[in-house]
Amino acid sequence: NMHGMPLRILAGEGDEKLVQLGGFAPKVKPENIVLIGMRDLDFGEREYIKKHQIRTYTMADIDERGIRSVIEESIAYLKD
Predict the structure, then answer these.
(1) For residue 36, is it within any domain?
(2) Does some domain include residue 1?
(3) 0.70 surpassed by pTM
(4) Which parts of the chain span the membrane according to its record (predicted)?
(5) Model confidence at 12: pLDDT above 60
(6) Number of domains in the chain
(7) Which long-range CB contacts under 8 A does 36-39 form with residues at least 24 apart?
(8) Domain range for residue 39?
(9) Terminal Cα distance for the chain, rounded
(10) Contacts (Cβ under 8 Å, ≥6 apart) of 24
(11) Mode of pairing for the β-strands spanning 34-38 and 55-58
(12) pLDDT tens profile 30-72
């Protein structure tokens, strides 16, 4: 089941044939990922995000803080 897995594969984990497409891995480092608008994460996704300390903003974060604030904070985080 590939649902929810493309980003993990791009980050260098998963089926080795897919991970090595293009001849290099990872395509993106977890510290360069920001997930915005997350609603429903399964246990495996939550564990992966926690393990790799991936910056994540839920829809509740957006509702509370506003999309502008979330986007500005995300850009500042990625610039560092």
Answers:
(1) yes
(2) no
(3) yes
(4) none
(5) yes
(6) 1
(7) 36/62, 36/70, 36/71, 36/74, 37/62
(8) 6-79
(9) 35
(10) none
(11) parallel
(12) 999 999 999 988 888 889 899 999 999 999 999 999 999 999 9
Mean pLDDT value across residues 18-26: 95
> In angstroms, what CA-CA distances link 39 with 8, 15, 22, 59?
18, 26, 31, 6
Contact between 77 and 34 under an 8 Å Cβ cutoff? The reply is yes
Are the CB atoms for 40 and 60 separated by under 8 Å?
Answer: no
pLDDT at 2 over 60: no
Q: Is residue 71 part of a domain?
A: yes
Q: In whole angstroms, how far apart are CA 31 and each of 2, 26, 35, 41?
A: 22, 12, 11, 19
How far is the C-alpha of 17 from the C-alpha of 22, rounded, in Å? 10
Q: What is the pLDDT of residue 3?
A: 58
Separation CA 17–CA 2 (nearest Å): 14
Domain assignment of residue 55, yes or no: yes
Burial of 5 (0-12, 13-18, 19+ CB in 10 A): middle
